[in-house]
Design brief:
Blueprint lengths: L5 E6 L5 H13 L3 E6 L4 H8 L4 E4 L6 H6 L5 E4 L9 H6 L3 E4 L5 H16 L15 E5 L3 H12 L3 E5 L5 H6 L3 E2 L3 H7 L2 E4 L13 H4 L7 E4 L8 H10 L4 E4 L6 H7 L4 E3 L9 H21 L8
Parallel strand pairs: 1-2, 1-3, 3-4, 4-5, 6-7, 6-9, 7-8, 9-10, 10-11, 11-12
Helix pairs in contact: 1-12, 5-6
This protein binds 3-phosphoglyceric acid (3PG).
3-phosphoglyceric acid binds next to loops.
Length: 309
Protein backbone atom coordinates (compact mmCIF):
# COMPACT_ATOMS: atom_id res chain seq x y z
CA UNK A 1 0.00 0.00 0.00
CA UNK A 2 1.34 3.47 -0.90
CA UNK A 3 1.93 6.29 1.59
CA UNK A 4 -1.12 8.22 2.81
CA UNK A 5 -1.95 11.41 0.94
CA UNK A 6 -0.57 14.27 3.03
CA UNK A 7 -2.60 17.45 3.42
CA UNK A 8 -0.69 20.38 4.92
CA UNK A 9 -2.26 23.37 6.65
CA UNK A 10 0.33 26.15 6.25
CA UNK A 11 -0.89 29.25 8.03
CA UNK A 12 1.32 32.04 9.26
CA UNK A 13 -1.84 33.42 10.91
CA UNK A 14 -3.41 30.31 12.46
CA UNK A 15 -7.05 29.27 12.22
CA UNK A 16 -9.03 28.94 15.45
CA UNK A 17 -8.53 25.48 17.00
CA UNK A 18 -12.13 24.52 16.27
CA UNK A 19 -11.44 25.04 12.56
CA UNK A 20 -8.24 22.95 12.62
CA UNK A 21 -10.16 20.18 14.42
CA UNK A 22 -12.89 20.34 11.77
CA UNK A 23 -10.36 20.21 8.95
CA UNK A 24 -8.66 17.23 10.59
CA UNK A 25 -11.98 15.38 10.82
CA UNK A 26 -12.67 15.90 7.09
CA UNK A 27 -9.16 14.91 6.05
CA UNK A 28 -8.90 11.83 8.27
CA UNK A 29 -12.42 10.65 7.33
CA UNK A 30 -11.18 10.54 3.74
CA UNK A 31 -8.23 8.40 4.81
CA UNK A 32 -5.66 11.16 4.40
CA UNK A 33 -3.08 12.49 6.83
CA UNK A 34 -3.00 16.07 8.18
CA UNK A 35 0.17 18.07 8.86
CA UNK A 36 0.23 21.48 10.50
CA UNK A 37 2.65 24.37 10.05
CA UNK A 38 1.49 27.46 11.96
CA UNK A 39 3.11 30.80 12.85
CA UNK A 40 6.22 30.02 10.82
CA UNK A 41 8.84 32.74 10.83
CA UNK A 42 11.18 31.63 8.02
CA UNK A 43 10.32 30.75 4.43
CA UNK A 44 12.58 27.70 4.79
CA UNK A 45 10.10 26.20 7.25
CA UNK A 46 7.42 26.41 4.58
CA UNK A 47 9.77 24.99 1.92
CA UNK A 48 10.57 22.04 4.19
CA UNK A 49 6.93 21.44 5.13
CA UNK A 50 5.65 21.36 1.54
CA UNK A 51 8.30 18.85 0.35
CA UNK A 52 6.03 15.79 0.69
CA UNK A 53 2.61 17.49 0.74
CA UNK A 54 0.02 16.41 -1.82
CA UNK A 55 -2.29 19.30 -0.94
CA UNK A 56 -1.90 22.57 0.95
CA UNK A 57 -4.46 24.75 2.71
CA UNK A 58 -3.27 28.35 3.07
CA UNK A 59 -4.56 31.81 3.98
CA UNK A 60 -2.53 34.87 2.91
CA UNK A 61 0.61 32.71 2.87
CA UNK A 62 2.83 33.31 -0.15
CA UNK A 63 2.97 30.38 -2.56
CA UNK A 64 5.52 31.52 -5.11
CA UNK A 65 7.47 29.64 -7.78
CA UNK A 66 10.08 28.55 -5.22
CA UNK A 67 7.44 26.99 -2.96
CA UNK A 68 5.79 25.27 -5.92
CA UNK A 69 9.18 23.91 -7.03
CA UNK A 70 9.90 22.60 -3.53
CA UNK A 71 6.52 20.80 -3.41
CA UNK A 72 7.32 17.87 -5.69
CA UNK A 73 4.21 15.86 -4.75
CA UNK A 74 1.78 18.76 -4.85
CA UNK A 75 -1.53 18.41 -6.66
CA UNK A 76 -3.67 21.17 -5.20
CA UNK A 77 -3.45 24.40 -3.19
CA UNK A 78 -6.61 25.79 -1.63
CA UNK A 79 -6.59 29.35 -0.40
CA UNK A 80 -9.07 29.24 2.50
CA UNK A 81 -10.49 32.64 1.70
CA UNK A 82 -11.33 34.85 -1.24
CA UNK A 83 -8.26 36.63 -2.65
CA UNK A 84 -5.61 34.44 -4.27
CA UNK A 85 -3.14 37.15 -5.26
CA UNK A 86 -0.66 35.44 -2.90
CA UNK A 87 -0.38 32.40 -5.18
CA UNK A 88 1.77 32.35 -8.31
CA UNK A 89 -0.87 30.94 -10.63
CA UNK A 90 1.47 30.71 -13.59
CA UNK A 91 4.02 28.63 -11.67
CA UNK A 92 1.24 26.42 -10.30
CA UNK A 93 -0.29 25.87 -13.72
CA UNK A 94 3.12 25.08 -15.24
CA UNK A 95 3.67 22.47 -12.51
CA UNK A 96 0.19 20.99 -13.06
CA UNK A 97 -1.02 22.16 -9.65
CA UNK A 98 -4.69 23.08 -9.25
CA UNK A 99 -5.37 26.29 -7.28
CA UNK A 100 -8.75 27.00 -5.67
CA UNK A 101 -10.26 29.55 -3.31
CA UNK A 102 -13.32 29.24 -1.06
CA UNK A 103 -15.45 32.18 -2.21
CA UNK A 104 -17.95 33.66 0.22
CA UNK A 105 -16.92 31.62 3.25
CA UNK A 106 -15.39 34.48 5.25
CA UNK A 107 -17.31 37.41 3.79
CA UNK A 108 -19.65 38.10 6.71
CA UNK A 109 -16.68 38.32 9.08
CA UNK A 110 -14.98 40.91 6.84
CA UNK A 111 -18.20 42.89 6.42
CA UNK A 112 -18.80 43.01 10.18
CA UNK A 113 -15.29 44.36 10.69
CA UNK A 114 -16.04 47.16 8.20
CA UNK A 115 -18.69 48.45 10.58
CA UNK A 116 -16.55 47.94 13.67
CA UNK A 117 -13.89 50.08 12.06
CA UNK A 118 -16.39 52.64 10.77
CA UNK A 119 -17.86 53.19 14.22
CA UNK A 120 -14.37 53.42 15.75
CA UNK A 121 -13.51 56.09 13.18
CA UNK A 122 -16.85 57.97 13.33
CA UNK A 123 -16.44 58.17 17.15
CA UNK A 124 -12.94 59.65 16.75
CA UNK A 125 -11.09 56.49 17.76
CA UNK A 126 -12.88 56.61 21.14
CA UNK A 127 -10.90 59.66 22.26
CA UNK A 128 -13.85 61.14 24.14
CA UNK A 129 -14.69 63.93 21.67
CA UNK A 130 -18.03 64.22 19.92
CA UNK A 131 -18.21 62.02 16.83
CA UNK A 132 -20.80 61.23 14.18
CA UNK A 133 -23.33 58.48 13.44
CA UNK A 134 -23.61 56.15 10.48
CA UNK A 135 -27.40 56.52 10.15
CA UNK A 136 -28.34 58.44 7.01
CA UNK A 137 -24.76 58.59 5.67
CA UNK A 138 -24.04 57.73 2.04
CA UNK A 139 -21.89 54.60 1.80
CA UNK A 140 -20.36 53.61 -1.54
CA UNK A 141 -19.41 49.98 -1.94
CA UNK A 142 -16.46 49.69 -4.31
CA UNK A 143 -16.95 46.22 -5.84
CA UNK A 144 -20.08 44.23 -5.19
CA UNK A 145 -18.88 40.71 -4.54
CA UNK A 146 -19.53 38.52 -1.51
CA UNK A 147 -18.13 41.02 1.00
CA UNK A 148 -19.76 44.01 -0.72
CA UNK A 149 -23.16 42.31 -0.56
CA UNK A 150 -22.76 41.68 3.17
CA UNK A 151 -21.70 45.29 3.72
CA UNK A 152 -24.90 46.40 1.96
CA UNK A 153 -27.00 44.06 4.11
CA UNK A 154 -25.53 45.42 7.34
CA UNK A 155 -25.63 49.05 6.12
CA UNK A 156 -29.41 48.69 5.72
CA UNK A 157 -29.66 48.05 9.46
CA UNK A 158 -27.83 51.33 10.07
CA UNK A 159 -30.32 53.07 7.72
CA UNK A 160 -27.54 54.29 5.47
CA UNK A 161 -27.96 55.34 1.84
CA UNK A 162 -26.22 52.59 -0.09
CA UNK A 163 -24.54 52.85 -3.50
CA UNK A 164 -22.41 50.27 -5.24
CA UNK A 165 -20.18 50.01 -8.24
CA UNK A 166 -18.85 46.80 -9.69
CA UNK A 167 -16.99 46.38 -12.95
CA UNK A 168 -18.36 42.82 -13.36
CA UNK A 169 -21.64 42.77 -11.46
CA UNK A 170 -24.67 43.68 -13.57
CA UNK A 171 -26.75 46.64 -12.41
CA UNK A 172 -29.80 44.39 -12.08
CA UNK A 173 -28.00 42.26 -9.49
CA UNK A 174 -27.22 45.35 -7.41
CA UNK A 175 -30.77 46.70 -7.79
CA UNK A 176 -32.18 43.31 -6.75
CA UNK A 177 -30.64 43.93 -3.31
CA UNK A 178 -32.33 47.37 -3.10
CA UNK A 179 -28.96 49.03 -3.53
CA UNK A 180 -28.40 51.92 -5.94
CA UNK A 181 -25.96 51.01 -8.72
CA UNK A 182 -23.65 53.80 -9.90
CA UNK A 183 -22.69 53.88 -13.54
CA UNK A 184 -18.98 54.45 -12.93
CA UNK A 185 -16.40 54.28 -10.21
CA UNK A 186 -16.04 58.07 -10.51
CA UNK A 187 -19.73 58.58 -9.74
CA UNK A 188 -19.39 56.28 -6.73
CA UNK A 189 -16.57 58.39 -5.29
CA UNK A 190 -18.38 61.66 -6.04
CA UNK A 191 -21.51 60.48 -4.25
CA UNK A 192 -20.10 58.73 -1.17
CA UNK A 193 -19.34 60.11 2.27
CA UNK A 194 -17.92 56.70 3.13
CA UNK A 195 -16.24 54.40 0.61
CA UNK A 196 -15.76 50.74 1.51
CA UNK A 197 -13.12 49.12 -0.70
CA UNK A 198 -13.62 45.51 -1.85
CA UNK A 199 -11.70 45.23 -5.11
CA UNK A 200 -9.26 42.32 -5.51
CA UNK A 201 -5.59 42.91 -6.17
CA UNK A 202 -4.97 42.33 -9.88
CA UNK A 203 -2.60 43.95 -12.39
CA UNK A 204 -5.51 46.27 -13.37
CA UNK A 205 -6.47 47.31 -9.83
CA UNK A 206 -2.99 47.77 -8.31
CA UNK A 207 -2.55 51.43 -7.24
CA UNK A 208 -5.88 52.20 -8.93
CA UNK A 209 -7.17 54.17 -5.92
CA UNK A 210 -5.13 57.24 -6.74
CA UNK A 211 -5.23 60.98 -6.33
CA UNK A 212 -7.57 61.56 -9.27
CA UNK A 213 -10.15 59.18 -7.78
CA UNK A 214 -9.72 60.47 -4.22
CA UNK A 215 -10.11 64.06 -5.45
CA UNK A 216 -13.70 63.24 -6.41
CA UNK A 217 -14.74 62.49 -2.80
CA UNK A 218 -16.83 65.06 -0.94
CA UNK A 219 -15.05 66.94 1.87
CA UNK A 220 -14.77 65.06 5.15
CA UNK A 221 -15.13 61.59 3.62
CA UNK A 222 -13.90 58.32 5.12
CA UNK A 223 -12.37 55.38 3.28
CA UNK A 224 -12.35 51.93 4.86
CA UNK A 225 -10.17 49.30 3.21
CA UNK A 226 -10.63 45.66 4.13
CA UNK A 227 -9.46 44.43 0.71
CA UNK A 228 -5.77 44.75 -0.19
CA UNK A 229 -3.12 47.39 0.46
CA UNK A 230 -1.67 47.40 -3.04
CA UNK A 231 -4.90 48.70 -4.61
CA UNK A 232 -4.02 52.02 -2.97
CA UNK A 233 -1.51 54.42 -4.47
CA UNK A 234 0.09 55.13 -1.09
CA UNK A 235 2.13 58.27 -1.92
CA UNK A 236 -0.94 59.81 -3.58
CA UNK A 237 -3.09 58.91 -0.56
CA UNK A 238 -0.62 60.83 1.64
CA UNK A 239 -0.80 63.82 -0.73
CA UNK A 240 -4.59 63.71 -0.68
CA UNK A 241 -4.72 63.49 3.13
CA UNK A 242 -2.34 66.42 3.44
CA UNK A 243 -4.58 68.51 1.17
CA UNK A 244 -7.84 67.33 2.80
CA UNK A 245 -7.70 67.61 6.59
CA UNK A 246 -11.20 66.15 7.08
CA UNK A 247 -10.51 62.86 5.31
CA UNK A 248 -10.03 59.64 7.31
CA UNK A 249 -8.39 56.41 6.11
CA UNK A 250 -8.96 53.25 8.11
CA UNK A 251 -7.60 49.95 6.96
CA UNK A 252 -7.34 46.29 7.88
CA UNK A 253 -4.20 45.91 5.77
CA UNK A 254 -1.25 47.82 7.13
CA UNK A 255 0.19 50.10 4.42
CA UNK A 256 3.90 50.04 3.52
CA UNK A 257 4.10 53.62 4.79
CA UNK A 258 2.36 52.88 8.12
CA UNK A 259 4.86 54.84 10.25
CA UNK A 260 4.59 57.91 8.03
CA UNK A 261 0.77 57.73 8.06
CA UNK A 262 0.68 57.36 11.83
CA UNK A 263 3.02 60.25 12.36
CA UNK A 264 1.32 62.60 9.87
CA UNK A 265 -2.32 61.72 10.54
CA UNK A 266 -2.65 60.35 14.09
CA UNK A 267 -6.31 61.35 14.41
CA UNK A 268 -7.38 60.38 10.88
CA UNK A 269 -5.57 57.14 10.17
CA UNK A 270 -5.93 53.71 11.72
CA UNK A 271 -4.60 50.30 10.74
CA UNK A 272 -5.11 46.96 12.44
CA UNK A 273 -1.71 45.45 13.34
CA UNK A 274 -2.53 42.24 11.46
CA UNK A 275 -5.33 41.61 8.94
CA UNK A 276 -8.32 40.78 11.16
CA UNK A 277 -11.24 40.73 8.69
CA UNK A 278 -11.51 36.96 8.35
CA UNK A 279 -10.12 36.22 11.80
CA UNK A 280 -13.22 34.83 13.50
CA UNK A 281 -13.78 31.24 14.50
CA UNK A 282 -16.91 31.15 12.30
CA UNK A 283 -15.01 32.34 9.21
CA UNK A 284 -12.10 29.99 10.00
CA UNK A 285 -14.49 27.06 10.29
CA UNK A 286 -16.40 28.02 7.13
CA UNK A 287 -13.33 28.63 4.95
CA UNK A 288 -11.13 25.91 6.49
CA UNK A 289 -13.69 23.12 6.25
CA UNK A 290 -14.72 24.23 2.75
CA UNK A 291 -11.03 24.01 1.77
CA UNK A 292 -10.72 20.51 3.27
CA UNK A 293 -13.89 19.31 1.50
CA UNK A 294 -12.74 20.78 -1.80
CA UNK A 295 -9.39 18.99 -1.48
CA UNK A 296 -11.01 15.65 -0.71
CA UNK A 297 -13.50 16.06 -3.57
CA UNK A 298 -10.68 16.96 -5.94
CA UNK A 299 -8.34 14.15 -4.92
CA UNK A 300 -11.09 11.51 -4.74
CA UNK A 301 -13.50 12.59 -7.50
CA UNK A 302 -11.52 15.05 -9.61
CA UNK A 303 -14.02 17.86 -8.87
CA UNK A 304 -12.32 21.17 -9.69
CA UNK A 305 -15.36 23.45 -9.33
CA UNK A 306 -13.50 26.24 -7.54
CA UNK A 307 -10.35 26.14 -9.68
CA UNK A 308 -8.93 29.61 -10.42
CA UNK A 309 -5.99 28.68 -12.68
C1 LIG B 1 -9.40 36.88 1.94
O1 LIG B 1 -8.94 37.20 0.83
O2 LIG B 1 -10.12 35.88 2.10
C2 LIG B 1 -9.18 37.78 3.13
O3 LIG B 1 -8.31 38.81 2.81
C3 LIG B 1 -8.74 37.04 4.39
O4 LIG B 1 -7.36 36.76 4.42
P1 LIG B 1 -6.74 35.90 5.62
O5 LIG B 1 -7.21 34.50 5.48
O6 LIG B 1 -5.25 36.03 5.46
O7 LIG B 1 -7.20 36.49 6.92
Amino acid sequence: MGALMKILIATDKPFAKIAVDGIRTEIEAAGFELALLEKYTEKQQLLDAVADANAIIIRSDIIDAEVIAAAKELKIVVRAGAGYDNVDLEAATAAGVCVMNTPGQNSNAVAELVFGMLIYSARNFFNGTSGTELKGKRIGIHAYGNVGRNVARIAKGFEMEIFAYDAYCREEDIKADDVEPTCSVKTLYQDSEIVSVHIPSTPETKKSINRSLLDLLPKGATMVNTARKDVINEPELVEYMEANPGFKYITDIMPSNHEEMLQKFPTRYFSTPKKMGAQTSEANVNAGIAAAKQIVDFLVNGNDQFKVN
